[in-house]
Structure of Methyltransferase type 12:
Amino acid sequence: MYSPTPEDWREANRAKWDERVPIHAASEFYDLDAFRAGKDALRDFELAEVGDVTGRSLLHLQCHIGLDTLSWARHGASHVVGLDFSEPAVETARALAVDLGLSQERAAFVAADAYDAAEAVPDSSYDIVYTGTGALCWLPDLDRWAETAASLVAPGGFLYVAEFHPLTDSLDDETGSRVVHDYFVRDPWVDTTPGTYADLDAVTVHNRSVEWVHPVGEVVTALAKAGLRIEFLHEHDASLFPRYGSLQRHEDGYYRFPADRPRIPLMYSIKASRPA
């Protein structure tokens, strides 16, 4: 029997993210001054796999404060739209767009739930629908997400997903070498950890959140059911942060296991297209 989803899951998650927006905006982790000066927020494998975005429209679902969204605009996307359920996050993203000299025609941000994206965004379809790392764990219903995202992909366009691999949630935090949690768990995970990944020592009040683990097969199947064609599923042996104490930071900025340890996937990416 599965544990029921708390009725207030969306409100709890929104309160947590609303509180953390100013902490993130002021943090060294996001380093908005460096971003304003030209630092790219996108990962190299994302740029390679998505390809040239010049002249293309792009929708970013669950965009947080908009750094990835605005980076796609810097890479030549003709029109980018970021969507997030946190009003403070959207306000911060809009201010950043102004700082970068991007008009609303080039970069727009919308405050709305990901499930309501089709009704909330300004256009009915986009050449590229993008969702970045750490997004899917906040959604209980992947079929509904996939249907919504797929409906916004223009004919001949594609959806691109970059995510942390769910296998990493099955392993012990200290070494990442022992399976301690069920990979196929469907129960919501309620967390009450204070602080934030961008500032572990930050004083926070809204610490309760509800998250879900989605196996890779569930993600791929949801996208296929929604009518998209899976172009690739790539698994990556690197992470963006030291998920386990045994991970080591490399010169390229990624974290990997030591060379004498067997590798496992720490991240994955998917490209799924809509026929022209």
Q: What stands out?
A: The longest strand covers residues 153-164.
